[in-house]
Specification:
CATH superfamily of the largest domain in chain A: P-loop containing nucleotide triphosphate hydrolases
Strand order of the largest sheet of chain A: 7-8-9-3-10-11-13-12
Strand content of chain A: 15-25%
Order of helices and strands of chain A: EEEHEEEHEHHHHHEHEHEEHHEE
Radius of gyration of chain A: 21 Å
Oligomer: heterotrimer
Number of helices of chain C: 13
Distance between the termini of chain C: 46 Å
Radius of gyration of chain C: 24 Å
Structural class of chain C: mainly alpha
Low-confidence stretches of chain C: none
Low-confidence stretches of chain A: none
CATH topology of the largest domain in chain A: Rossmann fold
Helix content of chain C: over 70%
Order of helices and strands of chain C: HHHHHHHHHHHHH
Largest sheet of chain A: 8 strands, mixed
Number of strands of chain A: 13
Number of helices of chain A: 11
Structural class of chain A: alpha/beta
CATH architecture of the largest domain in chain A: 3-Layer(aba) Sandwich
Distance between the termini of chain A: 16 Å
Shape of chain A: globular
CATH topology of chain C: MetI-like fold
CATH superfamily of chain C: MetI-like
Mean pLDDT of chain C: 83
Chains: A alpha/beta, B mainly alpha, C mainly alpha
Number of strands of chain C: 0
């Protein structure tokens, strides 16, 4: 991978929360790179730290969190082919620099559209708020025209009327489109969607995801999609990261992960997904045991207790990542013969 | 919305009517003879009493008396005190400005301090301001206003000799010093609750997903606080305004007594002592109308702030 | 085997029950303010119950030799204008003040709970009437409402309790009513209905126990208000008769200018007794609420 095509470069990200005077590690040594124009899916069960990972990258974290990393770099590519590097890890959470990235460069779509919109403002005003902030001197009428234009593109009927509505007057699917419009209005390069469809029903889910995919492909944007829905991953992602208990256990291209799942956890995760056309009588497997409490963990592989292949080695020290094939990394002692890459 | 307002006003009228009727009936059955009371032992004779009864229409059926009373109110005649014979219109209404003066000032001051400090403690959670605000809230909650008033008098009037301890109008000079202690006695205990409430509501709202979304737009923190957090915190805060006003008006009765403040509180206590029914009744009615109107206004204000209420009802 | 399993489950449940209870106690003990509140309340109760042992002085016996005396070794907190020992009066007076508050709170909460249960569970016109009535009662300033009722039925200790109960049921009513409205839709209630259990039995044996913790917390939190109201009324001269020592009637002494200015200990003592007691019950109630009913903040 050529460095200059990398839009987001995260190296050894660690995030902890202070709780009752104790530090609880939620995200551990997470490193990944995202190429411009590609989409990356971060998958894992609830509580595995996937949301916290992206929130740490965008620095939208609660006050009791502690974030550290070797670096988090965002690259802005200019039309003449040059690129400007932003060291996000060196910025303050709500400082001017970080704020200048939020919106025009990196934007987010959150999990719950019902809770994502401020109930007391008209949705049109909420869409243009960021636009006006990043384009001082822009007239409100012009901004509103852009918002209406965007809503039209997002397939919202009668956008001129909709912008005057309050959130509670819209349906869930419509609200999520508004949230997407808020994310897109400043024409960002990187869109982070944190489980954007979990709160919606299945038909709307498909529409929203198609919409996001279309935007990514047509406008050559980059997307990070956080989900626990493996079906969505196959439709949306170019690259996949599998997380378990705050650690990346496997990462690679979509093909790597789905055709040659290597980590025992990934295998089990895929085996537990229902697939259309599955043979009758074929059973869905469940992963034995339950997710351990992040506060109780000590050393070794986090998955050891639930893993059928667990050996004594698995409970010691830090488990390195091994290369299965080029660009396909797995963090499991079973592959100890391969080259260490992390 | 218009339908909602009309419905609210109609309910209010019915409620006021019911309240007034209940009070009217109850006051007739207290077992104290107002005529005998007003004449006193020395002047009492069966004939004069009967004559007064006839003149005042006290022999008519209750329901006739009730509607006559309402009819008079619409004519602007609120009746007379049976204890002292003063016109209620002059005797009670004339005292309202004095009461309103201290209660409204106390309301304004405690609201500004309460919301202000509450916001600051939410912004700087667990700072000195936060701890101080919470301590005042706890103390204010456990101290009766009149006791606080006595302590204030002891410190500022007697020990330090800075401020007058009683009265509304001084013999000479500015009235402002006379106002300070009564207002402080009412306002300070009241600040604490509002501080705590504002702080907790703002912290609640700050955890909402839409605040995170607002931050993800890259707008500065002060805008996040004022536009998104503050506005959404105000609706629950406004709802407790009425609650605070009732505490204030209730507290003012005792505080007026302590400071010899010539307001309606003192009129009420005197009227109760003297079994002066018309005065008690008028006071109650006035109070009911005032409180119900305020609760109505607060609902309207809430609707202005929150479109969900405005558009649905 | 099957049987064994069942006993195991029951035992586990029992163990879990004790564990939960222990956890709650530990949580309460971790709350320093709540423990402080509880200790102070216990000390108050102990002193008031043991008043005849703690102090040799009769709260009603005047002794003009020590009229308005300040605190001394003999009279710990000094004496009032008739030379009665203030410490003794605070203890004996506290008995009356606290009893009035506790009994009023009990009766008021009982009224509120029963009305709230009926209104919430059955709804309909009766519920609407109750809600309106509650609105009227709670829109009046409590003290003024009490004063108005005093105008009707006169003063006196028992009258005071009746008045407090009649005017103080609204908080409990609102809480219980909303709990009942929420819970009557829950599956376990629907199951009871399907089995043909009578409404009264569902209300009082199925729903009420779940709501009871909320009621107990509310009952506790109402007590300080009543203590302050009793004091306020007696201070104004509409509470218990002046011959009965309570914290309120003691405070009434401050209405005499001479005492207000020159002998502040006469009114500071009962005032401070009220503040400390109210503070302690508030802390205790807050802690209790955190433990028993964490949803209510």
């Amino acid at each position: 991978m050529e460095d200059k095509k990398i839009i987001l470069d995260v190296k050894n990200l660690n995030t902890s929360f202070k709780s009752d005077g104790k530090l609880i590690k939620i995200v551990k040594d997470v490193s990944f790179q995202l190429e411009k124009g590609r989409s990356l899916a971060i998958v894992g069960e609830s509580g595995c730290g996937k949301s916290v990972t992206v929130h740490s990258v965008t620095r939208l974290m609660a006050k009791n969190s502690v974030i550290s990393s070797d670096h988090v770099i965002y690259r802005k590519f200019n039309e003449d082919g040059t690129a400007k590097e932003y060291r996000i890890d060196k910025m303050s959470n709500y400082g001017k620099e970080m704020r200048s990235l939020r919106g025009p460069e990196i934007s987010m779509v959150f999990q719950d559209p019902m809770a994502s919109l401020n109930p007391v403002y008209r949705v049109g005003d909420q869409i243009i708020e960021g636009l006006l902030e990043h384009n001082p001197g822009m007239k409100k009428d012009d901004a509103m025209k852009m918002a209406i234009e965007l809503l039209k593109k997002l397939g919202i009927p009668a956008p001129e009327q909709r912008v005057k509505d309050y959130p509670h007057q819209l349906s869930g699917g419509m609200k999520q489109r508004i949230v997407i419009a808020i994310a897109l209005i400043c024409n960002p390069e990187l869109i982070i969607a944190d489980e954007p469809t979990t709160a919606l029903d299945v038909t709307i889910q498909a529409q929203i995801m198609e919409l996001l995919k279309k935007i990514q492909v047509e406008l050559n944007k980059s997307i990070i999609l956080i989900t626990h829905n493996m079906g969505l991953v196959t439709e949306m992602a170019d690259d996949v990261i599998v997380m378990y208990m705050g650690r990346i256990v496997e990462k690679g291209t979509l093909k790597d992960i789905f055709n040659a799942p290597s980590h025992p956890y990934t295998k089990m995760l895929l085996a537990s997904v229902p697939v259309l056309g599955m043979a009758q009588g074929q059973k869905l497997t469940t992963i034995p045991g339950s997710t351990p409490n992040p506060a109780d963990l000590t050393e070794g592989c986090e998955f050891a207790d639930r893993c059928p292949y667990c050996t004594d080695e698995c409970r010691k020290g830090r488990i390195p990542g091994y290369e299965v094939s080029e660009g396909h990394m797995v963090r499991c002692r079973k592959f100890a013969g391969n080259k260490e890459v992390d | 919305m218009a339908k909602y307002i009309v419905k609210r006003i109609l309910t209010m009228i019915v409620m006021i009517f019911v309240i007034s009727f209940v009070i009217f009936v109850a006051l007739q059955n207290t077992g104290v003879d107002p005529v005998a009371q007003s004449l006193g032992v020395d002047n009492y004779s069966a004939e004069t009493a009967a004559a007064i009864r006839e003149k005042l229409g006290l022999n008519d059926p209750l329901i006739v008396q009730f509607f006559r009373w309402w009819g008079n109110i619409f004519k602007g005649d609120f009746g007379y005190s049976i204890a002292n014979g003063y016109s209620i219109k002059d005797g009670v209404l004339a005292k309202w400005p004095a009461t309103l003066e201290i209660t409204l000032w106390a309301l304004v001051i405690s609201t500004i301090i309460g919301i202000g400090v509450g916001m600051l403690s939410a912004f700087w959670q667990n700072s000195i301001i936060d701890y101080l605000g919470r301590a005042i809230a706890v103390l204010g909650n456990s101290m009766p206003e009149y006791f606080f008033a006595l302590v204030l008098i002891q410190i500022f009037s007697i020990k330090l000799g800075l401020l007058p301890s009683a009265g509304r109008i001084p013999v000479e000079g500015s009235r402002i010093p006379n106002l300070i202690l009564p207002i402080a006695a009412l306002a300070i205990p009241l600040c604490g609750n509002l501080m705590r409430y504002t702080r907790n509501t703002m912290l609640d709202v700050a955890n909402q997903e839409y605040v995170k979304l607002a931050r993800s737009k890259g707008i500065p923190e002060w805008k996040v606080y004022f536009k998104h957090i503050f506005r959404n915190s105000m609706r629950p805060v406004i709802t407790i305004l009425l609650f605070r006003l009732t505490i204030l008006v209730g507290g003012s009765v005792a505080v007026e007594t302590v400071f010899a403040w010539p307001g309606v509180g003192i009129v009420l206590t005197q009227a109760i002592t003297a079994s002066d029914y018309p005065v008690v009744m008028f006071y109650t009615l006035f109070m009911a109308v005032m409180m119900l109107s305020i609760s109505f206004l607060i609902d309207l204000l809430g609707a202005v702030i929150d479109p969900r209420v405005r558009l649905e009802k | 085997m099957e049987n064994n399993n069942k006993t195991n489950t029951i035992e586990n449940a029992r163990k879990y029950g004790t564990k939960l209870w222990k956890k709650k106690v530990r949580k309460f003990l971790n709350n320093k303010l709540a423990v402080f509140g509880l200790s102070v309340v216990l000390i108050y109760i102990l002193l008031m119950v043991l008043a005849p042992v703690v102090t040799p002085w009769d709260p009603l016996e005047p002794n003009f030799k020590v009229k308005l005396a300040g605190p001394s070794a003999e009279h710990l907190l000094g004496c009032d204008s008739l030379g009665r020992d203030l410490f003794s009066r605070v203890l004996y007076g506290g008995r009356t003040s606290v009893l009035i508050a506790v009994i009023s709170s009990l009766i008021g909460s009982a009224i509120g709970t029963v009305l709230g249960a009926i209104g919430g569970y059955f709804g309909g016109i009766f519920d609407k009437l109750l809600v309106r009535l509650q609105e009227i009662v709670s829109c009046f300033p409590q003290l003024i409402l009490v004063l108005i009722v005093v105008a009707f039925i006169g003063t006196g200790t028992w009258n005071l309790i009746i008045i407090f109960a009649l005017t103080g049921w609204t908080g409990c009513f609102r809480l219980v009513r909303s709990e009942f409205i929420a819970r009557k839709e829950e599956t376990y209630v629907k199951v009871c209905e399907a089995f043909g259990m009578s409404s009264v039995k569902i209300m009082f044996s199925q729903i009420l126990p779940a709501v009871l913790t909320t009621v107990i917390v509310q009952l506790t939190m109402n007590i300080p208000g009543y203590v302050m109201q009793e004091a306020g009324l007696s201070f104004l001269g509409f509470g218990v008769p002046m011959t009965v020592p309570t914290w309120g009637t003691m405070l009434n002494a401050a209405k005499a200018t001479n005492i207000l200015i020159n002998y502040p200990h006469c009114w500071l003592v009962p005032g401070a007794a009220i503040c400390l007691f109210v503070l302690a019950v508030n802390f205790f109630g807050d802690g209790l609420r955190d433990v028993m009913d964490p949803r209510q903040q």
